[in-house]
Amino acid sequence: MNRKANAVWQGSGKDGKGQLTTQSGVLSSNPYGFNTRFESEPGTNPEELIAAAHAGCFTMALAFQLQGAGFTADELRTEAVVTLEKDGDGFTITKSALTLTAKIPGIDQAKFDELAGIAEKNCPVSKVLNAQISLNATLSA
Fold first, then answer.
1. Which terminus of the chain, N or C, has fewer Cβ atoms within 10 Å?
2. pLDDT band (50, 70, 90) for residue 41
3. According to CATH, where is 3.30.300.20 located in the chain?
4. What is the DSSP letter of 27?
């Protein structure tokens, strides 16, 4: 399976502007640039997209772990916060912090923690990130 996205950039690094388009069309010429990445201008940026990918990947991986163990979630809500830090002349993504709140009938805390940990370690996005990954998982009633 292959998935693709395209980036088009015009201009210099700081003053230029880009557009991102995904194969599915979810992003279609969405703007990005220095201001959307390092300031708070409207538009997206690579780190935000990685955070979305990590949250989505982990949450789906957990749903499959739960299914395999005989559970079905009422709701899995995950936030991913990706940290971009200065590294020499460039930048590095150093962390991805996952915060999960889950409503899962019939599961106990130990099984929930076990399955969430397996999902965090085995989702494909976790595997590709060369960053510290943390998981704060809460089972709510």
1. N
2. confident
3. 46-139
4. S
